[in-house]
Structure formats: structure tokens, C-alpha cells
From TrEMBL:
<dbReference type="InterPro" id="IPR008969">
    <property type="entry name" value="CarboxyPept-like_regulatory"/>
</dbReference>
<dbReference type="Pfam" id="PF00593">
    <property type="entry name" value="TonB_dep_Rec_b-barrel"/>
</dbReference>
<protein>
    <submittedName>
        <fullName>TonB-dependent receptor domain-containing protein</fullName>
    </submittedName>
</protein>
<keyword id="KW-0813">Transport</keyword>
<keyword id="KW-1134">Transmembrane beta strand</keyword>
<feature type="signal peptide">
    <location>
        <begin position="1"/>
        <end position="18"/>
    </location>
</feature>
<dbReference type="InterPro" id="IPR012910">
    <property type="entry name" value="Plug_dom"/>
</dbReference>
<dbReference type="Pfam" id="PF13620">
    <property type="entry name" value="CarboxypepD_reg"/>
</dbReference>
<dbReference type="InterPro" id="IPR000531">
    <property type="entry name" value="Beta-barrel_TonB"/>
</dbReference>
<feature type="domain" description="TonB-dependent receptor-like beta-barrel">
    <location>
        <begin position="372"/>
        <end position="720"/>
    </location>
</feature>
<dbReference type="Pfam" id="PF07715">
    <property type="entry name" value="Plug"/>
</dbReference>
<dbReference type="InterPro" id="IPR037066">
    <property type="entry name" value="Plug_dom_sf"/>
</dbReference>
<feature type="domain" description="TonB-dependent receptor plug">
    <location>
        <begin position="124"/>
        <end position="227"/>
    </location>
</feature>
<keyword id="KW-0472">Membrane</keyword>
<keyword id="KW-0812">Transmembrane</keyword>
<dbReference type="InterPro" id="IPR036942">
    <property type="entry name" value="Beta-barrel_TonB_sf"/>
</dbReference>
<keyword id="KW-0998">Cell outer membrane</keyword>
């Protein structure tokens, strides 16, 4: 039995009855012309073929006639032409053997993140990597972290609290990256962090678009080195079904989820819910490792029976109702974790972190005319979080020893509770809030010109943290006052933004993009960013990109002085980034494709801490040069993909040494092989290689550069897809991660306590997806 893949072709027919001539153009779903389609008038010998531009003209012998359309490997479609029809859209559905599809057809992907409008990935004015639902299934991706670790130029480091890493040589906690869900920001409010944990799972993902490079001209602050845009199934109008998914695996991992969408004439309702629970990885042996984990920390300080147990769960949810362009929705999550490896904790079992974030939105999307579209939307965010730390502090420990504690004896539970407990909390507060309103106009006066512009008002009303060393739920003071660390006046911030982008096609081969944005913030005032792109397609299978972009990251409330005892606002400017890129996308054959991009980042005004506990804009200019490349090949039932990333970052002076690429992997290779054994059964293997890296010691009390050896990680996924059981379609999966149980260390980028981070060993997961 052959596997079928449905491809939609659109036939536009204009009929002039007086001349009895039918003219039209056949295009694919991305509006590209399709040639070699045979068209005939049924029961006559008259035939015609489309040209290279998909155009045709055919004379019909009668006012009312029947067209028959054929193309090799496509179903024959018969369409009647009636007297009262002057314009006719015909959908030609073709059933093709999956193995006959070329890579060009499989990878003909439409993206929206690069220009805030749909366009083909090959002519998008940005370096953008796309992971589709099909990729997610074949590779066994269960959450955003293991998806990102297979993207060129991206580094994802698991801490089992939230994911550290970044893009193109700028690594931290992804705070230089803007995270979107269906184009709406989903950073946490408190510190504008891209807080990626188990709440961003793949059960509701239709497509992920990872934009590499600055994007502030489109998206404003914090799109410094890139954008991650998650496009969900339930938000897509073509998703009209119910999907139930159950997952279970090692470390007590289990999850249940449901995604649904239903179109009823002009009305649509959709949603997604997931419950996830896991102990994640067991680090019991690692936290007792005085060489690789807690180097520099007195080993005898820890309790004799020190254990590491985690109990993490998450509940992401989404819902949306729309009617004739009007819509309302919600996107949010609740998340509880055990802090993972972020700190060296004296009581792992009782430390915790709890987060709540909800985005409510309502808007209208309207086509004013064939050339003008408008979208207006209001958004309201609400966030609260709280947690408990038992972080080891050398100064406190030295004081305890000075006051009589025997350094040869472990700390008692009471000593830990009395001296190392630190509670941070918004639990008793009303929560931080964000109010955002935007309007966007899309104007296309011709097929070769597109203009997008918009205005955004954005106001944050943030809360600080109530801190306590003895109360698990400390009281919260929401009085707005300069002396109140929980709600200083500058915690309320607002900005107004205007952006404009023009795209023009010249000579059917040259795609020009020019865009700019003006942001005015009540604290750091005005800032301008600019972008430009030139995509040239000299040949049908070749596209060349020349790109320039600017971006900025605005200072968060900590950097502005939230923790300052001086009760002043630090005068900081946003960090800035300029990036130049040149890239080429080449199809050598229909089953051999490659792309390569070279870039240079120039970062200025980076915000750095001072010895006195404040923050300043650095005078240093940071230069990063890099290369990213991908190669795709298909032969028979086997498809392969190889990605390579090279990064060279300016030297840092640290520990008396000048080190290039400090904390940055110079070389990364990610590769995948998919073997389609039968129409329903596939085997996939992912291989990730990380080169040796020199990094700062994760313990802030040790000024030392450590060397972390290179490593290779292998994952294998077995998928049995599209099994028909009555009206349901079932997909089953078995995923084995880190097949060879390799010991893998990655750097502690934020210098949070542990020398380095141990990554997960071998794990086993099973998934069952049922579609109705």
C-alpha cells in the first residue's frame, strides 16, 4: 500500500463568455505557478498545457462546458463551467506516492516570522530554520529544549529548572532571544527572560520558526540575537480535529494532553490542555561529586544523607474563539519545579519554584479591501511566582565556623534552615501585569509591492520580590514608593512604538526589504532600529541573501536598580546589536539541497555588573563571526540532514588569561537520518556533536577557566504512524535519548554555583497519539 500525501493546487479561471475563452493560472498553495498541467474540454479532442508560469488559455465549444485537468501522479479532476459563473476557483487534489516526492516539494515551507506575513522560506529576508509537525514526529521531540538543540547556531543546556543557552555565540538564559507563541510574546514579565521549561511541549505545535539574527525592527526589545516563534495547531484554521496524546517514560515521566479545533461555518473554537509530571533526571550521584559539581565547596558541610529528588509538573493551556474576524483567546501555564541544578543547594528536596503566567487577548482581523488588511489586538498579561532556595554561601559558612561550628561535621537540618533558607515570593501579591495594544495594516497595492506598518502601546506594571529567611509565604507590600523594594515607581514602565516595512519585487528575481522601528520608553527614551534585506534568485534553484539588521535589549528592573539599597534608578541604555549576513540556498538536484550563511555580530552597550553590585553599560565592543550550514539529501526511502555551526567570539580577559570563545562552542554538528521502512513505520536517529569548550568555573568564588571535553549524543526514535482504527488515526512512538548513556557536561553560563551542568543520561519515552 502506498503512502499518500495531499498537495493542494489552486486553479484560477477567468471566463469571457462572449468569446467562449477560458483563461487562468495554476498555482500551488504558496502562489507559485505550476506548469505541465494538461487541461482538456471533456468529450472533445481540444487540449492545452500550462506554460512555465502556470498560464493557459482554452477555447470552449459551448457556453456551458466541462474542464478536465490531469497531471502525472495526480488525480483527474472534472469541473463544470456554468452560465452564471464568471470567476472560478478550482482546487486540484493530487495523490502522490510519498517516496516520489522530492526534497524540494517536502521542504516548500511557508513562514511568517521573517516579515510578519506569510511568504516562502526561500525568499524570506532572514536566516530562518523551520521545524514542522512532521519533523517533530519523526525526531521524537517532546519539548522545545530537545527541538532547539538540533538547530544550527543554537545551544540548549538543560538545568532541569529552565533551559540555559542562546543563539550565535551569545549564551545566557536565552534572555537575548524573544519567545513568541503565534506571534505574541511569552517572555516572563519579571526579567524579560525566555523561561523555557516543560511548559513548552510539542503536543500543540504545528511549526516552530527560529529566526537567527536581530529582529527589533519588527518585534521591538529583546529580539537581540533572534526570535523563536511557536505556531500552534489549535490556532490554525486548517486544524479541524481532536488529538489526544498520552506519554510515559523513565524517571516517572507521564503526560496527558488534548488539542482540538472545530470550524462551524464562520465560527471556530479551539484549545489545548496538557498535564505533565516527572522526576526528571536523578542527580543524586552528581551532587555528591566534589570535583565535577561542587568543587570549591567544603564537602563536609553537606548533610551525610544528602539526596537529590525532583518532582516537577506543568500545566500549559490555550483556548480561542473566533467569528468572522473577531477573536478572543488565552495562552498560559502553571509550572512547578524543583530548581534543578541552578544552585548548589544544601536541601535539594525542599527547594522549589512555582510560576503562573497568563495572556488574555482579543482582536479583529479584517480585510478592508482586496489590497488592505487590518489587525487590531488588545493583550493583558498576569504573572506571579515564588520559590525557596537553600543555596550554599561561603561567607555564611565561614561565619558559622567562626562562631563554633565544627568544620569536620556536616551542617544540621536546623543550621541549614536558620542560615541558608531564602524565600523569594509574589505569592501574596496581585501579580505583575502587562497591558498591550497594537494595530497593524497590511497594504499590497500590487503583486510586487507590500507595505506593513503598525503602532504598539505597551505598559508594564511589575512587582518585585518579597524576601524572607524564615517565612515560606512572606507578606507583600504593593505600595508604590521609592523605598519599597517590592514596588518602586520605576517598576511601572511604558513605551510607544511605530514600525514600517516595505517589500518590493523587481524583475521577478530580486526581493527587497526595508524596515525600521521607533520605540519611545519612559526611562531610556527613544531608540531607532533598522533592517534591510536583498534576496536574489538568479536561477530557479538558487537564492542569495544579503541582510543587515539592528536590535536592542532593554535593561530589566534588576539592572535598573530593583535591588539597590540607594533607591536610585541606574541610568542605563539598551544593549545594541548590528548584524551583517550573506547566505545562499542552492538546490543541486530535486533531492540534494544546501544552504550556508556567514554572519558578523557587533554588540555594544552590553549591560554588565560592577563590583559594587550595580550595573553599567560596557565600553567594550563584542565581535562574533560565524558560519551556519545545512545539507539535505534524499535517496529512496532514506532522508538525511546535516547541520554545522562555527562561532568565533572576541577574546575575554578572565583569570589573567585572554581566551577566545570563552563559554562558547566553536564547533557544533547536528545530523539526522530517517529511514521509512514501510508506509507506516519510520526509524530516525539524531546525532549531536559539541566541540571542546573553555568556560568560566560555575562557582563564583573560584576565578578559574575550566575545560569541558567534547561529546556526542545519539537519540533514536521508532514511529508507527497513521494506523487506522475505525474513524481514528493512531501514531505510536518509542524514543531513546542519549542511547549510549554518555556522560555529558555543559557550562554553567550564569555562574550560579555548580562548576558545570551534567546533562541527562539514557532515557526511554513512549508516546501514543490518537486523532479523531
Amino acid at each position: 500500500m502506498k503512502k499518500s500525501l495531499f498537495i493542494i493546487l489552486v486553479l484560477t479561471v477567468n471566463i469571457v463568455f462572449a468569446q467562449q475563452i477560458v483563461t487562468g493560472v495554476i498555482t500551488d498553495e504558496t502562489n507559485r505557478p505550476i506548469d505541465s498541467v494538461e487541461i482538456s474540454v471533456k468529450n472533445t479532442a481540444l487540449k492545452t498545457f500550462t506554460d512555465e508560469e502556470g498560464r493557459y488559455s482554452i477555447e470552449v465549444p459551448e457556453v456551458a462546458a466541462t474542464l478536465e485537468l490531469t497531471k502525472e501522479n495526480f488525480k483527474v479532476q472534472v469541473v463544470e463551467i456554468k452560465k452564471d459563473i464568471t470567476n472560478l476557483n478550482i482546487t486540484l487534489i493530487a495523490s502522490v506516492d510519498f517516496f516520489e516526492l522530492s526534497l524540494e516539494e517536502l521542504m516548500n515551507v511557508e513562514v511568517v516570522t521573517a516579515s510578519k506575513k506569510p511568504e516562502n522560506q526561500k525568499i524570506a529576508p532572514a536566516t530562518i530554520y523551520v521545524v514542522t509537525e512532521k519533523d517533530i514526529i519523526e525526531n521524537g521531540y517532546t519539548d522545545l529544549t530537545n527541538l532547539l538543540e538540533n538547530v544550527p547556531g543554537v545551544v540548549a543546556i538543560r538545568t532541569d529548572h529552565f533551559t540555559f543557552g542562546g543563539q550565535r555565540g551569545f549564551l545566557s538564559n536565552f534572555s537575548q532571544t524573544l519567545l513568541l507563541v503565534n506571534g505574541r510574546e511569552m517572555q516572563n514579565l519579571f526579567a524579560s527572560e525566555t523561561f523555557i521549561s516543560t511548559q513548552f511541549a510539542t503536543h500543540n505545535i504545528k511549526q516552530v520558526e527560529i529566526l537567527q539574527g536581530p529582529a527589533s525592527a519588527l518585534y521591538g526589545a529583546n529580539a537581540l540575537v533572534g526570535v523563536i516563534n511557536i505556531i500552534t495547531k489549535n490556532d490554525s484554521s486548517d486544524f479541524n480535529e481532536i488529538q489526544y496524546r498520552t506519554e510515559f517514560g523513565t524517571q516517572g515521566t507521564q503526560a496527558q494532553s488534548i488539542v482540538f479545533g472545530k470550524n462551524i461555518n464562520d465560527f471556530r473554537i479551539s484549545g489545548s490542555f496538557r498535564y505533565f509530571r516527572s522526576n526528571l533526571w536523578d542527580y543524586k550521584g552528581f551532587v555528591k561529586d566534589t570535583v565535577n559539581f561542587r568543587q570549591g565547596v567544603p564537602s563536609k558541610a553537606f548533610p551525610i544523607n544528602q539526596e537529590f529528588k525532583q518532582n516537577s509538573w506543568s500545566l500549559p493551556y490555550a483556548a480561542k474563539i473566533s467569528y468572522k474576524g473577531l477573536y478572543v483567546g488565552i495562552e498560559g501555564y502553571e509550572l512547578k519545579g524543583s530548581k534543578g541544578l541552578e544552585n548548589i543547594s544544601l536541601d535539594y528536596i525542599n527547594q522549589s519554584d512555582y510560576r503562573q503566567l497568563a495572556l488574555y487577548y482579543a482582536g479583529i482581523e479584517k480585510e478592508i479591501s482586496a489590497k488592505l488588511k487590518i489587525n487590531a489586538e488588545l493583550q493583558f498579561y498576569k504573572e506571579r511566582f515564588w520559590g525557596v532556595n537553600y543555596t550554599f554561601d561561603n561567607a555564611i559558612y565561614d561565619t558559622l565556623v567562626k562562631n563554633g561550628h565544627n568544620p569536620d561535621s556536616p551542617l544540621t537540618d536546623q543550621e541549614i534552615k536558620d542560615n541558608f533558607l531564602m524565600v523569594y515570593s509574589q505569592q501574596s501579591s496581585s501579580g505583575s501585569k502587562r497591558y498591550k495594544g497594537s494595530i497593524q495594516l497590511d497594504y499590497a497595492p500590487s503583486q510586487t509591492l507590500s507595505i506593513i506598518g503598525g503602532y504598539t502601546f505597551d505598559m508594564f506594571d511589575l512587582l518585585g520580590l518579597s524576601l524572607s529567611t524564615d517565612k515560606l509565604n512572606p507578606s507583600f507590600d504593593e505600595t508604590r514608593a521609592i523605598e519599597n523594594r517590592m514596588r518602586k515607581p520605576f517598576f511601572r514602565q511604558y513605551k510607544n512604538s511605530l514600525f514600517l516595512q516595505l517589500q518590493k519585487t523587481l524583475f521577478d528575481k530580486l526581493y527587497v526589504t526595508l524596515g525600521g522601528r521607533f520605540d519611545y520608553h519612559n526611562i531610556y527614551k527613544s531608540i531607532l532600529t533598522f533592517r534591510s534585506g536583498l534576496v536574489y534568485t538568479p536561477f530557479k534553484k538558487t537564492s542569495i541573501r544579503f541582510l543587515f539588521g539592528q536590535a536592542f535589549r532593554e535593561p530589566n528592573i534588576f539592572e535598573l536598580g530593583a535591588s539597590s539599597a540607594k533607591n536610585v534608578v541606574n541610568e542605563l541604555d539598551p544593549a545594541r546589536m548590528n548584524t551583517f549576513e550573506v547566505g545562499i540556498n542552492q538546490s543541486f538536484t530535486s533531492n540534494l539541497l544546501a544552504n550556508i550563511v556567514a554572519y558578523k555580530n557587533i554588540a555594544t552597550n552590553f549591560i554588565e555588573p560592577t563590583e559594587t553590585g550595580g550595573f553599567i553599560n560596557s565600553d567594550n565592543v563584542i565581535n562574533v563571526f560565524g558560519i551556519e550550514s545545512q545539507l539535505f539529501y534524499k535517496t529512496g526511502n532514506i532522508r538525511t540532514e546535516i547541520g554545522y555551526s562555527y562561532v568565533k567570539k572576541d577574546a575575554d580577559d578572565y583569570a589573567g588569561v585572554s581566551t577566545v570563545n570563552l563559554g562558547v562552542y566553536p564547533h557544533r554538528i547536528t545530523a539526522g537520518v530517517t529511514f521509512t521502512a514501510t508506509d507506516n513505520f519510520t526509524i530516525n536517529s539524531r546525532i549531536n556533536y559539541y566541540s571542546q569548550i573553555h568556560a568560566k568555573h560555575g562557582n563564583k568564588d573560584i576565578t578559574q577557566i575550566i575545560t569541558i571535553p567534547d561529546f556526542t549524543k545519539v537519540d533514536v526514535t521508532f514511529s508507527y504512524v497513521k494506523i487506522k482504527v475505525y474513524d481514528a488515526e493512531i501514531t505510536t512512538q518509542l524514543l531513546v535519548t542519549n542511547v549510549f548513556d554518555s556522560t555529558i557536561y555543559q557550562p554553567n553560563i550564569r555562574i550560579g554555583g555548580p562548576k558545570q551542568f551534567l546533562q541527562h543520561g539514557r532515557q526511554l519515552f513512549c508516546n501514543l497519539v490518537v486523532k479523531f
